[in-house]
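REQUEST FORM: STRUCTURE PREDICTION
Request ID: SP-0412
Submitted by: Lab K.M.
Chain count: 1
Length (residues): 287
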Amino acid sequence: MRTALLCFFLLCPLTAPAADPDETDRTLDDSWYQDDGSRDPGGQCLDQIMVFSGKPSRCLPPGKSTAYKNCCKNASGDIYFDSSGSSVESALSSKTITATLKAAGAGVKAATTALKAGATAAEASQAGAAAAQNVMAAAFNPASLVIAVAVALIMDYLLQGCDQQSMETAMLNSSGYCVPVGSYCRKKVTGFGCVQKAESFCCFNSKLARIFHEQGRSQLKSFAGSTGFGTPEAPNCRGFTPEEFQSLDFTKIDLAGYMDELKLHSAEIINADINEKTKAFTGEPKP
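STATUS: Completed
RESULT:
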């Protein structure tokens, strides 16, 4: 059950068609834990602080709701990645996640509107991509690579008829930000049984947060169960309390692969920054 009154430390659906009377549809509460705790005049949290909180999320594999297309497929390569060091880079990473999730929502809304107006699937996906691009352009330099990558992915999922939650989950999961919890039957039809399954995840706002939860929960009695992440129908994606986080044995958490990737991504960030500043100095036009 979601804990009320939280203050976070280190830390967003398509309207369903009318239900068939013979269908049973099980939805997943995919909302983030809310930063809604009371604070003192200086802004200090007076309620329960949570470290590295996540959100329940799901995507739909081939089934009735997806016209038997796979909306759980991973995107090609990372969409998001952790940066090293500065708070500016961390803020940019959070900004990228927020912007792409908003863009996915805008794309789904525009595509749905276009389909209702009689557009073809291709025309609807183009409308969705344009709406997504407008959202991304408002958040980033219009020439930014992140816009092209995000819009291309959103358009790909729109062409398959995937809903917003599946898009969000696929983008986060392909970047290594999610822990799989299992699958459950999302939709049953009387006489036919399960016609649509769902893959359930706990998704976090960084790969580092995912690693701490994936390797740290087994050390704590408060995360009971075979996985420590609840059930597929009700994933437990809450953050650590400060006491739980402090009690973790960090020598048992393997960060080797994460550090290697962080160095690689840091080099990419530095090289891109150097190239951009060099072009600005020489007057070379940006691509």
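NOTES: The radius of gyration is 21 Å.
Reviewed by: T.R.
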